[in-house]
Amino acid sequence: MQAIALRLAPNQDLKEELDALVHRHQLNAACILTCVGSLTQATLRLANQPDGTTYTGHFEILSLTGVMGVQGSHYHMAIADSEGQTLGGHLLEGCRIYTTAEIVIGVFPDLMFDRQHCPESGYPELVVRNQTASSKAASNNG
Fold first, then answer.
1. d(CA 74, CA 95)
2. Most buried among 2, 21, 58, 102, by the most CB within 10 A?
């Protein structure tokens, strides 16, 4: 595993920046190892809801987790307000950094995260492929 560490600055959009990083580095398989920071706006899709909800105020990022790849990424986040009330859901664009977001990403060079439609869930779901085995098979056939 390799690591990428970064800091996002005030007013940057958390999801937009993560997705841009995936494409800039052409990450085939990665995950969020840790994230601490704060937001002035959070947009989350709550469990079993069709659309996102935007919250405005000051929030601490308690947890950000996700799998990342050029074929698609999937993130969940938990935040707390100034009274310690906690809220979590599926990360959407519209999460604005307040002071910082300090993020460490793990990169798996031998894997490929793909997304394929799952008839059971109705969503594009994760399919993990081993890049090393695929590369060896391709070179053996060539």
1. 15
2. 21
